[in-house]
Specification:
Chain lengths: 283, 177
């Protein structure tokens, strides 16, 4: 733990913490959500509020009358949908910039993250699990890459060699070259940002979901959501698919591999909507 | 649907996931981004100067026939059939078309449970074999994400791999037989 904290502490540019998300998530868990609390909480972040309103008024939703405040937005979309928009746009701030240590261009990590969020949510929905937590864990699963990118940039060629020639997963290469890997760094960062323990654990173990017990179900959803995103090409950087197959993720959720193509079809539909909502670039 | 955008004299047309486009317009360059486990299939008739590009997601349309009817380009069987029929309508000839294939990437997995890229490729290869068609150039499998371009004026097929800046030529068209 200390090693991870030391690593996070020495990074020059920490991504901005999506401060309101953990609190919104906590509100979502209650049976009857008081929308005025949601509105108050979100209005502490004016930039986020503006971005959410912009998305609510996008061509995708095309409300009859322009939505000018959060209260209207909650009524128009429902709290859960508005939460997902808030999560996605606040994620964009942290995940948007290029991560050259991974060969990832501007916007690409966010695109991958949103695709993973959408796929994780689809899987949670199929299993009757908490969709908002799955969506958020999917969205933030690679947040640790932002911390490691800087260090990897300096040893880029070595990184490529290790991964490609030795047929090593990107995660193993990170661990070997830096002593830490992006999943555990991401998990630790989210814990420091006060995200709930199950979400922290799912991000921490999104490449080895079995180890996330007792949160292995959520970790498995994120693991599979990440795979679906990679399969569909919402996947960027060098050796983009250098990750290990974990059959236990299917076993944990009592799913079979034949269901993956169906998740891909559904994710394809949802991504088309999301891309139009956020006007994401095609590439 | 593909959306055209002008870049100089070249008109770049983006072929999205589960989409297909054909053209005989010599200014058109088709682009399909970020294939992942999906397959990009390009065909080109160097005599008729007709070409088409397809972005396939899954091997077999029978898993969702309603989807296959709405989006034939999503699947190997229905997508390839649509690609060839559309190119024939513009004057392409089966015996002249040059076929290039890219994509079908895989994660590191020996279990076979997650081999969608491989299954896509096998379904495609089988279909081509059944119809006596041969792939002229291909770059498939591996851990990388590829983007594919087809230039209608020349039939040249280029590839860009994620994490790398430069494009490479996969097929020069008329020089390949």
């Amino acid at each position: 733990m200390q090693e991870l904290d030391d690593y996070i502490n020495k990074v020059k540019h920490l991504p901005p913490a999506p401060k309101v998300l953990p609190e919104l998530l906590a509100l979502l868990r209650r049976e009857n959500v008081d929308s005025s609390k949601v509105v108050t909480l979100m209005s502490y972040d004016p930039a986020l509020t503006a971005d959410v309103l912009k998305s609510c008024n996008s061509a995708f939703y095309s409300p009859a009358n322009p939505i000018v405040n959060l209260q209207d937005a909650v009524q128009w979309l429902g709290f859960k949908e508005m939460y997902r928009i808030a999560a996605a746009v606040s994620g964009a701030k942290a995940l948007g910039p290029a991560q050259s240590g991974y060969g990832i261009n501007t916007g690409e990590l966010w695109h991958h993250s949103v695709a993973t969020a959408v796929a994780s949510q689809i899987i949670a929905q199929k299993l009757g699990e908490d969709e908002s937590v799955a969506f958020t864990a999917g969205l933030l699963h690679d947040i640790g890459k932002i911390i490691l990118s800087e260090a990897l940039e300096k040893i880029y060629m070595k990184l490529l060699e290790e991964t490609e020639r030795n047929q090593q997963s990107l995660l193993d290469t990170e661990k070997k070259l830096l002593g830490v890997q992006h999943a555990e760094i991401g998990g630790r960062l989210l814990a420091r940002w006060k995200f709930p323990a199950n979400l922290v654990s799912a991000v921490w173990f999104h490449h080895s979901p079995k180890a996330a017990q007792p949160n292995h179900r959520l970790a498995s959803m994120v693991y599979l959501g990440n795979l679906v995103a990679h399969f569909m090409g919402h996947s960027y950087g060098h050796s983009a698919l250098a990750l290990r197959g974990r059959v236990d993720a299917l076993e944990t959720l009592n799913l079979n591999a034949d269901q993956l193509p169906h998740f891909m079809i559904e994710a394809h539909e949802r991504m088309a909507e999301v891309e139009s909502m956020f006007k994401m670039a095609a590439a | 649907m593909p959306s055209p955008s002008l870049t100089g004299f070249e008109q770049r047309v983006v072929v999205g996931i589960a989409e297909m486009a054909v053209s005989n317009n010599q200014n058109v360059v088709f682009a399909t981004y970020s294939l992942g486990s999906c397959l990009g299939v390009s065909i080109y008739d160097p005599v008729a100067h007709v070409g088409g590009l397809l972005h396939i997601m899954l091997p077999d349309s029978t898993i969702d026939t309603a989807k296959a009817a709405a989006k034939p380009a999503m699947f190997v069987d229905t997508g390839v059939s649509m690609l060839f029929r559309s190119a024939y309508q513009l004057g392409a000839d089966k015996h002249r078309v040059i076929i290039s294939v890219a994509g079908g990437a895989q994660i590191m997995d020996n279990s076979g449970f997650f081999n969608i890229g491989k299954r896509n490729y096998e379904a495609l290869a089988q279909l081509f074999q059944k119809h006596g068609l041969r792939i002229s150039a291909q770059q498939t499998g591996g851990l990388v994400n590829r983007t594919m371009y087809l230039k209608i004026a020349t039939g040249e097929v280029r590839l860009k791999t994620s994490g790398q800046q430069e494009e490479v030529t996969l097929c020069k068209s008329s020089t390949t037989t």
